[in-house]
Design a protein that fits this description.
single chain, 332 residues, UDP-N-acetylmuramoyl-L-alanine:D-glutamate ligase, five-stranded mixed beta sheet, 13 helices, 14 strands, globular
Length: 332
């Protein structure tokens, strides 16, 4: 049986990115800086307006956990991804984007009829990403997508907080966590988005259960979870639900808290143009480093370099060559 460094569970989405101006959010009554779920008709109308006004910057395979798993594979790790795509053109595009990148999946040739999930990613002049997502068939992700044998043979289970919006997806996370805990597989979860914390707190608590080994969150998500207005003040609440907390702080780097030990991760200075996927990349690089025997400081260094490279171009993923350049620069 194949051994996997990380087993991921999340939404499979095709991202379409646009560079927009802030007045667009006001005109369209869109909440900036968060992910909002919409139906297909509403997304189609907005897509037409974005196309007419701005034009597409990039189309790419996406989904938060998928981006993380892709990064792990490109750094040289072994990974498995459970997701759901349909038998349509976006589904074919998604699979081509995933490619033969050392990623095993539950997807076969007999994919269900339906519509593959799509996400409109709007990047504002301050590089913030705002997303409108139609989950499509991904909303039907359930426990049947879990490959229990593959999960049992993994070092880490990585769970995407966005799955909290789907009852079946939320249950799949809970079931996967139970399998992991019963078999000594470490658990990692990302809070994903401030809106998930604000509107789906109870579901996230059910997904977390008695606690995970590793929690990823950005400053806004962490402060919302803890109900405080400073990053340091979030730690007592976060350490109740995770053994190790990784807080990403944008241009200020990151903070890793493992028990009483605090490790500051220095930022890598770049000209940011698009923050979409930066947190996913950080998590992927960090998990890859941990799963291959590196300490938190080294994992943070690799993750910081990788996230910096991600924000300096449009799109949530880097090329295979870029991953190897970063790996060589950090590990030698």
């Amino acid at each position: 049986m194949t051994h996997y460094h990380v087993y991921g569970l999340g939404n499979a989405l095709v991202d379409t990115e646009f560079a927009v101006t802030d007045d667009f959010f006001v005109q369209e009554k869109i909440q900036k800086g968060v992910m909002t779920l919409v139906d297909e008709a509403a997304q189609r109308v907005l897509l037409e307006r974005l196309m007419q006004r701005y034009g597409i910057k990039k189309r790419a395979g996406g989904g938060s956990a998928a981006n993380t798993i892709y990064a792990i594979s490109q750094f040289g790790g072994s990974a498995y991804y459970s997701c759901k795509v349909a038998d349509d053109e976006p589904g074919e595009f998604y699979l081509r984007e995933l490619g033969s990148n050392n990623i095993h999946t539950n997807l076969g040739s007999g994919r269900d009829h339906g519509t593959t999930g799509k996400c409109l990613v709007m990047v504002s002049p301050d590089t913030e990403r705002t997303m409108l997502t139609f989950l499509g068939i991904s909303e039907q992700l359930d426990s049947s997508t879990i490959d229990a044998e593959a999960l049992r043979n993994s070092d880490y289970l990585y769970m995407e907080g966005y799955l909290v919006t789907s009852p079946s997806g939320r249950q799949a996370v809970i079931d996967a966590r139970h399998i992991a805990e019963a078999n000594g597989v470490k658990t990692a979860l990302t809070l994903s988005d401030p809106a998930m914390v604000q509107f789906f707190r109870g579901g996230l608590e059910a997904m977390i259960g008695t606690g995970v080994d590793l929690l990823f969150a950005n400053a806004t998500e962490a402060m919302s979870w803890a109900g405080v207005n400073s990053v340091d003040a979030t730690l007592p609440a976060l350490q109740k639900i995770a053994k190790t907390v990784v807080l990403t702080l944008g241009a200020d780097g990151a903070l890793v808290v493992d028990g009483m030990e605090r490790i500051r991760v220095a930022p890598v200075q770049v000209q940011a143009v698009d923050t979409n996927g930066a947190g996913d990349m950080f998590a992927g690089a960090f998990l890859y480093a941990l799963a291959t025997g590196h300490d938190y400081a080294t994992a943070g260094k690799l993750a910081s370099h990788a996230a910096a490279a991600t924000v300096s171009h449009f799109g949530p993923r880097l090329t295979p060559a870029q991953h190897q350049e970063i790996r060589s620069a950090v590990f030698g």
